[in-house]
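STRUCTURE:
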């Protein structure tokens, strides 16, 4: 049994991004020591590539959503089944146009990523007003 009861970032996307970023920072360090702008630019380019590779792997299911996951999805070689729809609260998914919040148009009910409809503020206010009117009418009878 492990020392902790949750998994924390042990993914193919995370380790791949870390490896590429490590090479990028090593090249950046070399560029600083050699005072070479082209080597600094190469190191920054490698660092940007690490971000893009990590993001792409996350979107294909090799990363993890923020928060807790079920124990059967803790393994590093387990793809995330919810990656295609996007993860709620995930900046990377929102940047890709997945799982983000979409504002509802007038007369439209907002539907979160889970697919369950939730009442909008107007619907809630109308329901509260109707309930208050019904309670007042019942109290007067």
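SEQUENCE:
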């Amino acid at each position: 049994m492990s020392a902790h009861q949750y998994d924390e970032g042990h993914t193919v996307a995370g380790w791949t991004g870390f490896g590429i970023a490590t090479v990028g920072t090593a090249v950046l360090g070399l560029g600083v020591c050699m005072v070479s702008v082209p080597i600094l630019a190469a190191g920054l380019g490698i660092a940007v590539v690490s971000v893009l590779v990590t993001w792409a792997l996350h979107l294909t299911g090799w990363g993890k959503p923020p928060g807790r996951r079920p124990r059967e999805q803790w393994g590093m070689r387990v793809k995330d089944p919810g990656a295609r729809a996007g993860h709620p609260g995930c900046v990377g998914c929102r940047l890709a146009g997945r799982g983000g919040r979409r504002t509802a148009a007038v007369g439209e009910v907002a539907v979160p990523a889970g697919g369950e409809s939730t009442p909008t503020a107007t619907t809630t206010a109308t329901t509260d007003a109707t309930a208050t009117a019904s309670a007042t009418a019942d109290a007067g009878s």
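REMARK: The two ends are 65 Å apart (CA to CA).
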